[in-house]
Specification:
mainly beta; globular
C-alpha cells in the first residue's frame, strides 16, 4: 500500500509561481514512478509530468519549459515547481504513484487557481 498526499496549491496571479508537493508513505520502496495530473472544471483529467525512480523526467507540451519536477528521496517527496502560471493552469492537481508490479495510487488533490 502507498499513500500520497499533495499540498501547496492556492491562488496566484498570472505569471506567478507555486510549488506543489507529493509526499509518499507506506511501501515507498515499490514506487517506480510518480506522475502529476490535473483536472480543470468540466474537463477530463490530463497528464502533466512524470518522474521515474531513475530520475527520468517527462512533461506534457502544455507545461514544458514552465514546470519542473524534482524530488527529495530522504523525505519521500516529489515537487512540481510551476512558473509562469497562466489561467489555463487552473485545476485540481493530483499525484499518482506507480508501483513496479503494476499497482497505482492517487492522492486526494490540491487546488490551483490562477487569476488573470
Amino acid at each position: 500500500q502507498v499513500q500520497l498526499v499533495e499540498s501547496g496549491g492556492g491562488l496566484v496571479q498570472a505569471g506567478g509561481s507555486l510549488r506543489l508537493s507529493c509526499v509518499a508513505s507506506g511501501s515507498t520502496f515499490s514506487i517506480a514512478a510518480i506522475a502529476w495530473y490535473r483536472q480543470a472544471p468540466g474537463n477530463e483529467r490530463e497528464w502533466v509530468a512524470r518522474i521515474t525512480a531513475g530520475g527520468l523526467r517527462t512533461y506534457s507540451d502544455s507545461v514544458k519549459g514552465r514546470f519542473t519536477l524534482s524530488r527529495d528521496n530522504a523525505k519521500n517527496t516529489v515537487y512540481l515547481q510551476m512558473n509562469s502560471l497562466i489561467p489555463e493552469d487552473t485545476a485540481v492537481y493530483y499525484c499518482r504513484g506507480f508501483q513496479s508490479w503494476g499497482g497505482d495510487y492517487w492522492g486526494q488533490g490540491t487546488t490551483v487557481t490562477v487569476s488573470s
